[in-house]
# Entry
Amino acid sequence: MNAHRMLGLSLAPPKEAEDRGISSRTSDLITTLQGQVPSLDPSSLFDLIGSLERVKAMALHKLLAPKADRSLSLDTGKYLTVKEVCDRYGVKAKWLYRHKHQIPHSQPSRKVLLFPEKPVEKWFASRKCP
# Structure
């Protein structure tokens, strides 16, 4: 099975993409990514997959969020990984997983947990000590 199919990605050629309503800029970005993948080392591929999961989470959030919430979701900016939240706020990953239901987060798949930067920053600021 192709890697993009395993990841749930549809990497359609530019013509097919335009037929489905994908902008030419988006199509160009996909084509560029496809061209770069063979030349990346394995550790860079993990970073790429993580970045693609962030984009996927943002797109899903935009699609699924109620209309009133969509404007707020655009202001969240960057999504942080578990490691980034732990490093930034001095908490352990185990603590973060235990308390994720209290913290704004997105879980686009079973193994990926992402935190919108600004809402998480506000959440930690409202707490004295995690």
